[in-house]
Structures are given as C-alpha cells and as structure tokens.
Write a structure and sequence with these properties.
Oligomer: single chain
Number of helices: 25
Shape: globular
Largest sheet: 5 strands, mixed
Radius of gyration: 29 Å
Helix content: 55-70%
Length: about 650
Amino acid sequence: MRITDLLKSSGLALHASATTKAEVFDLLIDMHDKNGNISSKDGYKAGIMAREEQGPTAIADGICIPHTKCDAVIKPGLVAATIPSGVDCEALDGNPSTLFFMIAAPSSGSDVHLEVLSRLSTMLMDESFRKSLLETTDKDTFLSIIDQKEAEKFGIEKEEAPAAPAKDGYRVLAVTACPTGIAHTYMAAEALENAGKALGYPVKAETNGSGGAKNILTKQEIADCDGIIIAADKNVEMARFDGKPLIKVAVADGIHKSEELVQKVVNGEAPIYHHAGGSEADEDSSEGEGLGRQVYKHLMNGVSHMLPFVIGGGILIALAFLLDDYSINPGNFGKNTPIAAFFKSCGDAAFGFMLPILAGYIAMSIADRPGLMVGFVGGSLASAGTTFASAFDSSIAVISGGFIGALFAGFIAGYLVLALEKATEKMPSSMDGLRPMLIYPVIGLLGISVIMLAVNPFFGWLNGLLADALNSLGGSNAIILGAVLGGMMSIDMGGPFNKAAYVFGTGALAYETTAGFQIMAAVMVGGMVPPIAIAIASWLFKNKFTDNDRKSAPVNAIMGLCFISEAAIPYAAGDPIHVIPSCVVGSGVAGALSMLFGCTLRAPHGGVFVIATIGNPFMYIVALIVGSIAGAVLLGVLRKPAAK
C-alpha cells in the first residue's frame, strides 16, 4: 500500500488558517469525518488527545503527526494540512509546526497503516521534500510530490507489491530495571514503548520496580516476539529468554537510545541468548560488557534488595528516638519508653538483615540462585566479625567487618559458586541434580566460612578505622565532603556517580554514628535539588524555557521533594552543558550547608515524607531552599532564551 492509497485530495487542507493546536486538530478531525474514516468525532478526538497527553506528536523541523488507534476509527485513514505561518504544538525543538499529518487507525485488524507511517516519517526527514509540500497550494501537486518521493525513496516495484500482513502481538518485548526501582525503570519502559509506537512496531515492557514486576511478559508473548531488550542496571530473571534474540544494555540506554534498540531487534541484529545453566556471569548477550560495568551491576543488585531493609528499619529507628525521652536514661536512649522500644526493636531487626541481604544478592547476581545462600552467610559472618579465634572461644571480642566486609563477602561468594559451577560442569549428567542441591551449598558454605573467618580481622580493623574517621569528621572537612557528595548526586542523576554517593551514604548508616547520619542527610538533600532547581528556574526565567517545560515544572518540583533526582533527566539530556553544572553547584551548596548545620538522617529515602525524623529539620529545609535557588539562578544566567 502506498501513502496516496490512504491520503486523498478530500483529506487535504493546504495553506489553512489556524492559530492554535486545537484549531488544527479540529480541522484534521473534520476531514477524517467527511472521508468516512471515523464513526464518532468525539471518540476519535478523545483518542488523539489521550495520545498527546503521553507526549507531543510534534516532532521537530515543523512536522506534527498526531495519531491514535481506537474503536472510533472505521478504516485506516490519513489527512494532511499545511500552515506556513506555523502553530505552537509543543514540538521537541521548540519551533512551530507547519506540516501536519493525522493518522486514524482501527483498534483491531491489519496494521498496514503503520508501514505507511514509517515511510512517511522517513521521507519527511528530507528538507527539500518538506519545502515542496509547504509551497504548493494545489492538492494534485501535493499528492504527486508525495507519490514521486515515495517511488524514489523505496522503489516502485516494492511499493506496488501487496503489503505483507503485519505480525500479530508484540514485535519487541522489553524488561526494565534500575537499582531503586523508582524512576529509571518506568522512564525506560515508557521510552521503549513510545519508540515502538513511533516506528510502527508494538512493544511491551515489563517493569521490575520497587513494587515488584509489573506488566509481566507471558510465555506466549516471548515465543511469538522478534526479540527482547533488557534495559537494566541489576539482574533480572533470564532463563525464560533462552534461544531468543536479545540485547542487554544499561537502563539509561533504554531511555536515550530506545528507537535504536527497537529497530535493531526488528532488523534481526540482536544475538541469540543462551542461558548458561543459571549463571549470569558469562552471558553472550551483554555485548562486550566490561568488568567495571559488571561489578557495578552486581553491586546495584545487592543495594536494590538491601534498600527496603535500610529504609524501613531506618525510619522506625528514627521514630524511636523521636518518641523517646532522653532524660530517663541517656545510655538506653531509643528504648526508654515502651513505644520507643517497640519501634527500636522492629527497626533493629530490619537493620540486622541489611549486610547479609547486600552480600547475598551480590552473590546471586554473579552466580544466580546457588550464590544466594553462600553470599547471605558470608555477609552474616562479615557483620558479626567472626574469626577463627572467636569461633573456638566465644569470649574473644570481635569487631564487625561492616559494609565493606559484606561487599567483599558478596563478591567472593558469587565467584566461589561460579568456580564450583565451572569445575563440576563435566560431571556425569546423572549427577546434575546433586550440583545445586549438595555440592554448591555444602562446599560453597565451607569455602566462604573459611575465607571470611580468615579475613574478618582485617575488615574489622578497617571498619574500626573508618568509624573513627567518621567520628572525627568535622569543620571544613565535613563541609567539603557534604559538597562533594551533594554534587555527585547531580552529575548523572541516577547514574554511576549518583549511585556511588548514595551507596556511600547508606553504607555510612551502618556505623550508627552522628557523622554517618550527617553524610546520609547531605546525600539526600543533594539528590532533591536538581528537579526543584529546574522548576524554580522555569518560574523565574520564563523566557529560558518552552511552554511545555514550564507546564512540567510543578510535577518536577514535587518529584524533587520526594527525592526522585531522575525527574531532571529530560532537561539535562536536552541541555546538558547548562543544566548539569547548575544542578551540581546547587546540590553541592545544599550538601555543604546540611553538613554545616549538623543535620542528620537515619532513613536513606523519603524526601519530605521523612522530615520528622531528620535532625535539625528547619535548617535542613533552609539548606534545600538555598541550594535549589543557587542552582536555579545559575541555570537562568547560563541558559539562552528558548526558541519561540
């Protein structure tokens, strides 16, 4: 099917008069109605506007292609209009739209119109082609220009041949996951699904977020699809994809390279994935994943599973201190009153699992399920600080290996089990059942126990050294550290720098010192600043932002108050030279002030929702406001006026 099979002269409005987006859309909808493409103008318009709410269909270079697939459409149809004076449709480049194509697609039946959309989008990349369409006032000439360009671009024989029936179901499946499962997970899923819509290939994305897996891929969908995209910074369940074409990338690539990834799968360029007996360490789908990337992924898998224990336990412990009476017994502060003792006991129980969970899920990321138990025990031994001497004589004092000891235990446990898997893979197949049920747990447990009991004295010494360093932290050193950590939270807003600072902050909580709580406070306030600073800048410097940017500002501010730094990513991606330095400065100022004011935080997440548990909350708010304003003013000064 050719484009002109859908686009008729009765569906053209050349050099039309319209000044608003609503007027243009009403004009196009009226032409669809007159051509008999839709059964209900209101129903079709509702579908068009619902699609617009997901994101403007005004692309760039004056092009706008509103579209919807709904029950109000009787048959596939295409109408077009040219408005040389331009209409503001919130285009990605901020420029007015002059060339409009509106697509009507039935909710069921053939998707042949999607191929037409794909061709049309490709043709519109040619500036001279767009110019020719805008200049003509003759409908037959308009259609002739399209027909000629289509034949030139794609070949007449190919276009005149009957179109192949579209494949039923989803062409591409995706799984998205980030360490915290709050923002990047859902942003990547939306970007991939929207990319599929734009390219004409149905995409379904499963999200592995903080509330568990949603929109789960079914066995039939996996069997029928062309391929899978894994956009994740932590491991996801992979055995189900054995034998399917699969691309594995960072979650950020799922956001920023979504169309490229979808097209790559559809073009058959994804390698076949072979599940290696449960191990994720040697998969051939990682496309040359470097050592640093692998270590980061394994670490983030441990951190993501640890966070609920730290957040839940931290908040309950903070409430215990908030509700207790210090004067009753300063040495028992946190458990002096029944209600405080209740919260403290529950919080301590959750905190007690923090290090074993961290180590266990790092090991599981490396060696899959066989590594979980070995890593969990290794983390527990690191947390307890058990040594060979204390194992034989319980009266001997020990020092916990802490966060660093648990990290070491997790990685050692994972690679130990991985080595066991490699060493036993040539055993007779009749003994395969013994490997995961007997060999891995028994030898793995013995191995990690011997290793941790041997190295725990070193990690206990190192942990004590770090605790002393934190306790002695003060003055200018503390302020500088707060500025550095706060600034790191804004460098990549959810990326490796951000996560490094965040992991340092959560690790500091394990020492249960005032300095550790101050570090966590500086980290969180630094992460809250970017979205709030951008929102304030859009209000103070209106000429520096597009209308669409300003409309999003209130939501951005709310997400910032909730400690979701990722809300600033769209702005940073569109203007990194000005946005990122401004946010880094603002976050650095906030982190430094938080340290200067001695603010503390026992809960590693929550934003304004945990303000009651923050030490010196009023000055913490001051630090947040000052840092946000500093970032906003700098952004307003650096950024150029937005194109109208």
